[in-house]
Amino acid sequence: MPEFRQNMVSKEWVIIATERAKRPDQFLQKKGEKAPLPPHREDCPFCRGNESKTPPSLLTIEKNGSWALRVVPNKFAALQSHLTTQRKHEGRFLKADGFGIAEVIIETPAHNRTIATMDIEEVRNTVWAYKKRYLALAETGKIDLITIFRNYGERAGTSLEHPHSQMIATPIVPPHVRNPLYQSQLACDTYGDCIYCGMMEEEKRQQVRMVEETPYFLVLCPFASRSPFETRIYPKIHRSSFASITEEELMEFAGVLQRTLKRLYVGLNDPDYNYIIRSAPIEDTDVKYHHWYLVIVPKLTTPAGFEIGTGIYINTTLPEQCAQFLREVSIQ
Ligand SMILES: [Zn+2]
Ligand SMILES: [Zn+2]
After folding, report:
1. Ligand 1 centre distance from Cα of residue 299 (Å)
2. Contact between 274 and 224 (Cβ < 8 Å)
């Protein structure tokens, strides 16, 4: 029997279509679909020795006299940092200059790694750089929202093989981000506490969608997952902004992130994915009603007409089965 499920924060609905259900292992990627990458490529702008092909580093982590991680401005950014944030009218239409700050985190000099296969030190460097640059961008005063994300693989929209993440700071909080904030604020006004914290309590009680629990984090496949293997990492301590994470939590976060991506890498044979850190807008850095998290969306299906038309996603796999599958992947 198919069922509707509601995302308790955004109030969006999904359809879990068990009639057309696929078993989690049916999403296994074909072996050999991805050619193995070389450790270094002469023509890769992010490989060691090609530093002059990127703008100068904004942040560098060194190891043994050479760089281990670099953050550089995005040369091909859709937004530019020298413009104004002024809104303008063109007749009845609203517009603004394309102001924004876009940066690329080059996570390692090794061309052929990804978070699932890196040394833990490289993953720690990466999340440490996220926080460091987030704080630096937030201080510019012209920014309302900072989005950290990683596009992995062609289906996830990346053109560059070299392991990297991105960060884009915008002077706009779009409805897609604002609407769940309204909802969570409303819920907080009604019930007096954070709806995400309540959701986590419920997930812990039900257990069936849990993938992993550590002292500081919960990993789970959400009740109203929009697509197969959607997986989220939530901090157990209530904080609305990613930038408020402590050093100790950050180091644990690196391990949790790597293990979760490794479950997907091993379990599904290296699928493409996007992950996004959803942190509160700058002005809501310390609020009771928002709770930051990281969401991983493996690119296993394509939204079609019904999804685009209604925003109601049809998910053919039970999140409970995906969570169980991920829990059972042997990652060590
Ligand atoms: Zn490279
Ligand atoms: Zn919370």
Report:
1. 23
2. no
pLDDT digits (tens, 9 = 90+) for 171-184: 999 999 999 999 99
Instruction: Give me ligand 2 centre to Cα 237, in Å.
Output: 7
Q: Do 322 and 221 meet the contact criterion of CB atoms below 8 Å apart?
A: yes
DSSP 15: E
Q: Single out the catalytic residue among 162, 164, 290, 291.
A: 164
Mark whether 111 is an active-site residue.
Answer: no
Show the domains of the chain with their CATH numbers: 3-328 (3.30.428.10)
Count of helices and strands (H, E) across the chain: 6, 15
State which residues have CB under 5 angstroms from ligand 1, the bound ion: 44, 46-47, 111, 162
Direct distance between the N- and C-terminal alpha carbons of the chain, in angstroms, rounded to an integer: 37
Please give the Cα distance from 126 to 235 (Å, whole number). 18
Helix (H, G, I), strand (E, B) or coil at 74: coil
Q: Considering only CA atoms, which of 236, 58, 238, 257 is closest in space to residue 149?
A: 257
Residues contacting 135, CB < 8 A, separation 6+: 243
- Give the three-class secondary structure for 72: strand
**Cα separation of 22 and 239, whole Å?**
36
Mean pLDDT (the chain, rounded): 95
Tokens 């959607």 belong to which residue? 230
Q: Which two tokens stand for residue 332?
A: 């060590």
Give me the helix-helix angle, 319-328 and 247-267, nearest 10°.
100
Determine the Cα–Cα distance for residues 56 and 58; give it in Å rounded to an integer.
7
If you ran DSSP here, which 8-state letter would residue 310 be given? H
What span, in angstroms and rounded, lies between the C-alpha atoms of 13 and 140? 37
Task: Tell me the pTM.
Answer: 0.96
Q: Render pLDDT for 94-127 as a digit per residue (tens, 0 to 9).
A: 999 999 999 999 999 999 999 999 999 999 999 9
Q: Ligand 2 centroid vs 287 CA: distance in angstroms? A: 9
